[in-house]
Task: inverse folding
């Protein structure tokens, strides 16, 4: 099947009380691990490409790898796996246009660092071009802290979404979905120790998400799909493996999965996951290299890394997103 937009995915997710996983991709092994998990769980899928990923792997390589994944699903699983290819955090009209012209079925234009009026102007420009080409658009209100690829926002520069602005923003821009800021954050270091408490095991416990903001946005935009960025949970078992095998990631902490599942039962139809994939791959490779110091064939350590990503994604699809069996 051809690539699809997220329109029908989001409608079914909103009505069904689950969310679609939007997983960032950078290379073949990551794409394979994600799509194989989705095939086995029969889950709809959004594969996200950041501007950093396009610089690293090149647009044409990523698109051909995704085409191969679709063909593999048809041959191996015997069904059409719905896949949407999405630009994550596009920051210019030119970047969004390049992705639309290059076959993406969805783009995000992130004007959250701009004034409200400038954000609307830029977002509307992208929406007009995208809709003319059958592509859907995600906008953003509110600014997430953290670091991920080209996105770097200090904690003091972050801001929660203002619910009183969402109706005007959606109406004037024509966006198809809206990313909001309710306390999630980019990267593996989402919160400082001062922002958290510690449990009995000494593990940092982050502040809860602002569900009051999500609820108010949902009331103002009934039936409209909401997106959460910066929603990796930073599994502590991966952090432990990394630290035990030469890594240095003290106090890395993410968003509790129970809170993400709660958000998915409401208006949140898309949850972005990137850092968890990186941690799964890095933990596996570090452990493998420590246990097999004489090995040098990339296939030897990338194979278990791919399997680790697949296992992680299956867990997210079933236990966090609730989208298994929805393809």
Result:
């Amino acid at each position: 099947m051809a690539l699809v937009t997220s329109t029908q995915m989001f409608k079914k997710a909103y009505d069904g009380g689950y969310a679609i996983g939007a997983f960032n991709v950078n290379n073949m092994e990551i794409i394979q691990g994600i799509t194989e998990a989705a095939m086995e769980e029969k889950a709809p899928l959004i594969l996200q490409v950041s501007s950093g990923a396009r610089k690293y792997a090149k647009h044409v390589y990523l698109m051909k790898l995704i085409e191969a994944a679709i063909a593999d699903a048809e041959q191996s699983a015997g069904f059409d796996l719905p896949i949407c290819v999405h630009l994550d955090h596009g920051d210019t009209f030119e970047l969004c246009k390049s992705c639309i012209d290059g076959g993406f079925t969805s783009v995000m234009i992130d004007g959250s660092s701009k004034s409200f009026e400038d954000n609307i102007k830029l977002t509307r420009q992208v929406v007009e071009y995208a809709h003319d080409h059958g592509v859907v658009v995600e906008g953003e209100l509110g600014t997430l802290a953290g670091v991920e690829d080209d996105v770097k926002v200090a904690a003091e520069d972050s801001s929660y979404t203002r619910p009183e602005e969402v109706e005007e923003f959606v109406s004037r821009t024509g966006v198809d979905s809206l990313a909001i800021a309710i306390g999630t954050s980019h990267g593996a270091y989402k919160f400082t120790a001062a922002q958290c408490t510690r449990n009995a095991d000494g593990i940092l416990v982050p502040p809860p998400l602002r569900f009051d903001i999500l609820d108010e946005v949902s009331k103002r935009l009934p039936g409209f799909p909401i997106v959460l960025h910066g929603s990796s949970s930073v599994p502590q078992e991966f952090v432990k493996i990394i630290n035990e095998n030469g890594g240095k990631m003290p106090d890395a902490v993410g968003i509790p999965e129970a809170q993400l599942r709660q958000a998915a039962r409401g208006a949140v139809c898309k949850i972005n996951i990137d850092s968890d994939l990186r941690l799964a791959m890095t933990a596996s490779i570090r452990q493998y290299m420590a246990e097999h110091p004489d090995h040098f064939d990339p296939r030897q350590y990338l194979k278990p890394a791919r399997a680790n990503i697949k296992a992680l994604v299956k867990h997210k699809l079933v236990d966090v997103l609730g989208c298994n069996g929805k393809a």
